[in-house]
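Morning F.,

Quick status update on the modeling queue. The single chain you submitted on Monday has been processed. Sequence for confirmation:
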Amino acid sequence: MLIGAHVSASGGVNKAVARAEEIGAECFQIFASSPRMWSAKPIDDKVAEKYHAEIERTGMGPTVLHGKYLVALGSSDPELLAKSETALQSDIAAANKLGALGVIFHPASHRGQGFDAIVDQFAASVRKILDNEPGDSLLMLETSAGAGDHIGSSFEELGTLVKAIGHDRVAVCLDTQHVWAAGYNIAAIDTLNAAIDEFDKEIGIDLLKSVHANDSMRELGSSVDRHDNIGEGLIGTEGFQTIMSHNVFKDVPFYLEVPGTGKSGPDKPNVDRLKAIRSQVGAR
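Structure tokens below.
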């Protein structure tokens, strides 16, 4: 179980490695380009070489990329769908170049069409993206908090998408705050076990490839996406002890996406908190 965090790739992806090292992260997540703009430049060969050298120097664990917030594979707008496919394909190309574990992206919204109406389109888009960018990097669907028309707040919906896509480079990222907001009480052992059983039945536990580790500012079942620092939210330190002590997470990397103690994003205090919990529960 490696403890990582989202860090800035400003100035080049190679710069992200030292930033992760500085806060004690053992692996990290980055944006390959601005998450709020469609444009994206391919990673320069020299920058990629520096990145690989930095990874080798530090012995960092698996890198993941986070997809753009703009991506909407459930949209009925052909132009938006095409832009979304291009953006995700660009991210997968970047992930392959970096040898990253994969790209995590939000399934986003069905835009009022209803979930059943978008399944085939969503699946076809993902297959197209992966077929156009062969390699080892995965596309990981992230669990949703469930607000509005958002897709993937239930393991049943994610499992339906995964089965419809039918591709061996598709996996899932479990966001602790999102599943809590969606009504899965992962902070108590009995309900955590029930959630894991449901995940395995609907998706397959072998497809759980990453965790976004975030405490929650909002109550269980709120459907509101509001991250909090580890131990400061409603999942709490004891909740993370429960999560991290479960055998299903022992080989899955954790990536922090918390506000940070100084409100500047994931930081050393949060990394240290997760490491302390990992040590307490004997997860490493």
